[in-house]
Each structure stands twice: as C-alpha cells, then as structure tokens.
Design brief:
It contains 1 helix and no strands. The chain is mainly α.
Length: about 80
Amino acid sequence: MSAMKMRRSLAELEQEFRQHTALEAQRKLALERTAVVRSRQRWHERERRRSSLRFYLLTASLALTAVVVAAAMFATLYLLLA
C-alpha cells in the first residue's frame, strides 16, 4: 500500500513539474513578445522624432535661403540703380 501511495505521489510530482515547465515556457514566450513589441515602439518613436527634426531643419533652411536670396537680389538691384 505504501509503495502505491509513493508511486501516485511521484506521478503527481511529475505532472506538476510538467505543468510548471509548460507555464514557464508560456511565460517566457509572452515576455519575449512583450520585449519585441516595446523595442519596436521605441524604434518608431525615435524615427518619428528624427523625422520631425529633419522637417524643421528643412523648413528653416528654405526660409533662410529665401531671406538670403531676397537680400542679395535687393542689394544687387540697389547697386545697379545707384
């Protein structure tokens, strides 16, 4: 009788171990997926910031170019008419 109880409890322990191992594997996969999603979100956020910075630099350079060209044009016109 004692041996039967021992076998049953050993089988229960093995079953619990398998369940625990399966749960740990699922948990590990969930953590990996979460890490991948967070990494992708951070990458998109960095790209968005870089794109915004490039847009502002392009806009500023266009505005500065327009001001310089207008100033040069009026300076040249002044010299021609003076």
